[in-house]
Design a protein that fits this description.
Layout lengths: L1 H25 L27 H10 L5 H7 L18 H9 L7 H11 L6 E4 L6 H12 L9 E4 L3 H14 L8 E4 L15 E4 L1 H10 L10 E5 L1 H6 L3 H10 L6 E6 L4 H10 L4 E3 L3 H4 L4 E7 L3 H14 L4 E5 L3 H13 L4 E4 L5 H12 L5 E4 L12 E6 L12 H8 L9 E7 L2 H14 L4 E2 L5 H6 L3
Parallel strand pairs: 1-6, 1-7, 2-4, 2-5, 3-4, 5-6, 8-13, 8-14, 9-11, 9-12, 10-11, 12-13
The structure holds adenosine-5'-triphosphate (ATP).
Length: about 475
């Protein structure tokens, strides 16, 4: 009975969200439909004094991007973007080097210049690598994957697993762009919606997908042979090996790999126990680790706002929405229900927002994400389903409508770090705003602050000293 009720409620919720997305799709697209560029100092002059509340000023100031910022970070040995080498010095194949430059990359980031020479050297070495969100891990492992492909062999040799459909597609797109000048390399997505007939033998070199589909194709349909895989990559490795569901599937796949297969594990976070487990399943790895205090990027400024009730919480969101004339925001909610509620309330008030949560079909999810990427909506409301890996350059504000907690209600610091990492991509400035609505959520906020050893500042419109500090 309870199950039937839950199913009915879920169906209804799904229909509501679908309807909402349809409505959103019908909303007239604003003039600034193109993805806006990074915020420049001169944009501040455009602030209309009539609507420039202190909150707006704070956010604008925090987002100013100075032209020399990236250069400064590149020269700072403490920055994850610090690089002493050039891409040429990494000994990539000339075709891949052309691909890298065609993507507009000039210099490698720290993780790229540290990991890549080891990953592409012979004999192949296993690696467990950690680097902050938005610092170019995808390019690091993708270049290593493409380097290892032997196009004389017509079967899958490289397997890359991602935790979500969206992330697998995003990684595949990066790989395809990197491989632009290697047309003979064939890349295949193993994700929901991609189907193969029984008896098919895949001739693609690189498989990028989610664990369930990869299991089906390899062990159920025998479309490719796991023992012939020479490179196995786990993106967001900590969830892939520690989170129930993914864990079983990954371990099953892992068991069929040859002993010679090179393993690469990448993530921005590894809890201590997860790292120990990773080191146990990956033979003799080279490990690249961050110190706790390095995990949160300095270019993401973190704030909390006290919101005593739901109305004020909504008002804070409406204010933030008003501020974003440049850039975009992602709002994270704890449940689909809250995400749906917030999205419909904002849509009713004429705001153009997208909503993406787990119960949409994969096609709907991708469509919502594409619209947001293209700048049709300036706000995307979502749940943890989008907390990891998604790379949208122009996102400069992340709002935690609800702070991330685990099943016992304690601070989920890893999810927090991944959520706020949707902004501040590759050295850009970003702002994370936490809406604190109870003593319990204040405690969660403090626990997160303590965990990373980085201050989460009170965003208090009355506190002019604090306001002056922001953006300096
Ligand atoms: N060397 C480079 N030069 C310039 N831009 C780069 C370089 N490497 C990566 N980027 C860009 O930086 C952004 C973030 O990279 P990426 O998505 O790989 O980060 P990540 O470390 O995987 O982040 P996450 O932990 O969130 O998954 C992307 O837009 C990517 O195109």
């Amino acid at each position: 009975m309870a199950d039937t009720w839950t199913k009915a409620a879920e169906n209804q919720e799904q229909q509501e969200i679908q309807k909402l997305n349809e409505n959103i799709n019908n909303v007239t697209i604003s003039n600034d439909a193109k993805p806006p560029a990074a915020v420049k100092e001169e944009d501040l002059d455009e602030v209309n004094p009539a609507d420039a509340s202190l909150l707006m000023k704070i956010i604008r100031k925090g987002l100013i991007e100075t032209k020399t910022d990236l250069d400064i970070q590149r020269k700072d040995p403490n920055s994850p973007l610090y690089s002493v080498k050039t891409f040429e010095a990494l000994h990539l194949k000339p075709e891949l080097l052309r691909g890298v430059y065609a993507m507009g990359y000039n210099n490698p980031s720290k993780i790229q210049e540290t990991a890549l020479p080891t990953l592409i050297a012979d004999p192949p070495q296993n690696m467990i690598a950690q680097s902050q969100s938005g610092t170019g891990k995808t390019a690091a492992f993708t270049l290593a994957m493409l380097t290892r492909v032997d196009t004389a062999k017509d079967f899958p040799q490289v397997l890359c697993l991602s935790p979500t459909y969206e992330l697998a597609i995003q990684t595949g797109e990066v790989a395809a762009r990197m491989a632009k000048f290697c047309p003979e390399i064939r890349i295949r997505y193993a994700v929901r919606g991609e189907d193969i007939a029984r008896g098919t033998k895949l001739t693609d070199h690189v498989i990028i997908g989610t664990p369930g589909k990869v299991l089906d194709w390899s062990l159920k349909f025998h479309a490719f042979d796991l023992s012939k895989i020479t490179v196995f990559v786990l993106d967001e490795a900590d969830v892939m090996i520690a989170q129930q569901g993914h864990q079983d599937q990954c371990i099953r796949l892992h068991k069929h790999l040859s002993k010679k297969c090179q393993m690469m594990l990448f993530s921005a976070t590894y809890e201590k126990k997860v790292m120990e487990f990773a080191e146990y399943i990956v033979p003799s790895p080279i490990t690249i680790r961050l110190k706790k205090e390095e995990e949160v990027l300095d270019n993401i400024k973190q704030y909390y706002v006290r919101c005593p009730n739901q109305d004020i919480k909504y008002q804070a969101i409406a204010n933030i929405y008003g501020v974003i004339t440049i850039g975009q925001a992602i709002i994270f909610c704890h449940t689909r229900k809250t995400a749906g509620w917030l999205a419909s309330k904002m849509a009713q008030e004429g705001h153009s927002v997208g909503v993406l949560s787990g119960e949409l079909t994969v096609e709907q999810r991708l469509a919502v994400l594409d619209r947001f990427r293209e700048g049709h909506e300036k706000v995307l409301i979502t749940t943890n389903v989008l907390s990891r890996g998604i790379d949208i350059e122009q996102v400069n504000i992340v709002v935690n409508f609800d702070l991330p907690v685990d099943q016992t209600g304690r601070a989920d610091c890893e999810t927090y770090l991944h959520r706020i990492g949707r902004t501040g991509r590759f050295g850009k400035h970003g702002i994370a705003i936490n809406l604190v609505d109870s003593e319990q959520s204040m405690k969660v906020c403090r626990d997160i602050e303590r965990h990373f050893g980085k201050k989460i500042m009170l965003l208090d419109a009355e506190n002019s000293d604090e306001i002056e500090k922001i953006g300096s």
